[in-house]
Design a protein that fits this description.
By secondary structure, the chain is mainly α. Helix content is 69%, strand content 3%. The protein contains four helices and two strands.
Length: 147
């Protein structure tokens, strides 16, 4: 069970499994959406929306999130900054993607971005708290509670 407690500077792994799960889930869904766009299963829309460009962007963002999720699982202490940057990158990409999809994309694309963006914003907030708590715990303040 995930208690949400960071273990300070002990030898136990410091990290947040929730962020790893969200990053992994959204990353996997992005890879699926990339395949659907690049194979033109999801096509249509009007400029500036382009399914090939969307698929490429989704593939890159999905890969970055999957790497971040994997690193958080394998080496949570050293992956904290990378994970924060990766989720921030994904938030920026989703924001830009939402602009393109609302001006010319399909309803599926708009709905996907409207579901994924809040999940990524939550993960960004949570990972920011993990990084901030880890910096505070390096001074020996002990366990820090995260929501």
């Amino acid at each position: 069970m995930d208690t949400g407690i960071l273990q300070g500077t002990t030898s136990e792994a410091v990290g947040d499994r929730v962020v790893a799960r969200v990053a992994g889930g959204v990353g996997l869904s992005l890879v699926v959406m990339a395949v659907l766009h690049l194979t033109h299963v999801i096509a249509g829309g009007s400029p500036p929306y382009d399914p090939d460009s969307a698929g490429t962007a989704e593939g890159v963002i999905g890969l970055v999130l999957l790497i971040a999720a994997d690193r958080l699982r394998r080496e949570p202490r050293t992956a904290q900054g990378f994970a924060l940057g990766a989720v921030g990158f994904a938030v920026a990409g989703f924001g830009l993607g939402l602009v393109f999809t609302t001006t010319g994309g399909t309803a599926v694309d708009v709905a996907y971005h409207c579901v994924g963006l809040p999940l990524l914003l939550f993960a960004l907030w949570r990972q920011w708290r993990v990084v901030r708590a880890a910096r505070g715990s390096s001074s020996g303040t002990g366990p820090v509670r995260t929501p």
